Structures are given as C-alpha cells and as structure tokens.
C-alpha cells in the first residue's frame, strides 16, 4: 500500500483505533518503538548508547582470524538514518569513525575501502552538524578525530 492509501485509511479510523494501532506498532516493531520513544521524549542519548554498542560489536575484530565486520555497523547507521533524527545520526557516525581509527591505531589496519568508508562517514557527520547548527557542541570531538586521522595519513577535513 502506498503512503497516500495509508493516510486515507487512517483518516477513516477513530482516534481510539489509531491509538491501538500505534500501541501495537510500539510493542511489535523495535524500530517503531525507538522512533516513538524519541518522538515522545526528544531524548536520543539512551538509544545512541544502544546503537553505539552494536556498532562496536561489528567494528572490533572478532575471533582468531580478526574478522572485521564494519559493513554491518554501516548497515545499522543506514537503518537509523531512515528515522531522520540528525543528532542521533551524528552521534553514531562520529562513534563509527572513532572506533575505526582505534582499529587502525591498534592493529595497523590498512585497506583503501575501509579508509574511504571512514571518510564518507565523517563527511556525513560534518554535514549533519552544519545542518542543525551544532558546530560548538561537536567542535572538540571533530578536531580530535581529524587530528588522530591525520597521524595515519587520512584526511578528515572539517
């Protein structure tokens, strides 16, 4: 069903039916719960911490073969971006960059695609920061990440 079709159906429903529908979504769809929690409270900190732990799980090496699964971490971030909560996106994107820089520092990891993904993620965060005008809040962290990256020949321009 297209969005317009859904809107037509919602218009036909009583307020109590819509409340029941949203309550069911809240209980059964984790992404909807996360979105509605932020909608109701405006608070992203708890959700950001949850996603940061998931990102870390995928970025840091796993097992004897030191398998890196940063592509899975990027999938989490892409999914969260669909919520269109810019500050949450920025937090996760900067965390991703920070974790990747730690991998480079700790293991001397070098892969061109890894570096490209890291740079793109940083650029997305910078664009988000500019979009919501929060340069003051993130200035120190961004400068720190940019400086650390330059030690490894990575240009993260701010």
Structure characterization notes:
With 158 residues, this protein is mainly α. The chain has 2 domains: 1-42, no CATH class; 44-158. Helices cover 77% and strands 0% of the residues. The protein is built from 8 helices and no strands. It has helices at 3-12, 15-28, 30-41, 45-59, 70-81, 86-107, 112-132, 135-150. The radius of gyration is 19 Å and the shape is elongated.
List keywords for this structure.
158 residues; mainly alpha; 8 helices
> Mean pLDDT, rounded to whole units?
90
Largest sheet: none
What is the domain tally? Answer: 2
SS-based class? mainly alpha
Share of residues in helices: over 70%
Please compute the radius of gyration using only Cα atoms: 19 Å
Head-to-tail CA distance between termini: 42 Å
- The number of strands is 0
Question: What sort of overall outline do the alpha carbons produce when their principal axes are compared?
Answer: elongated
Strand proportion, as a percent range, falls in under 5%
């Amino acid at each position: 069903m297209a969005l317009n079709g859904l809107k037509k159906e919602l218009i036909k429903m009583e307020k109590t039916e819509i409340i029941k529908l949203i309550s069911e979504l809240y209980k059964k769809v984790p992404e909807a719960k996360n979105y509605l929690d932020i909608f109701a409270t405006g608070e992203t900190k708890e959700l950001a911490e949850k996603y940061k732990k998931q990102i870390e799980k995928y970025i840091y090496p796993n097992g004897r073969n030191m398998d890196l699964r940063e592509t899975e971490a990027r999938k989490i971030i892409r999914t969260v971006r669909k919520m269109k909560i810019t500050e949450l996106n920025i937090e996760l994107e900067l965390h991703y960059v920070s974790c990747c820089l730690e991998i480079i520092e700790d293991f001397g990891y070098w892969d061109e695609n890894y570096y490209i993904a890291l740079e793109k993620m940083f650029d997305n965060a910078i664009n988000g920061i500019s979009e919501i005008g929060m340069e003051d809040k993130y200035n120190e962290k961004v400068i720190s990440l940019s400086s650390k990256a330059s030690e490894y020949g990575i240009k993260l321009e701010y």
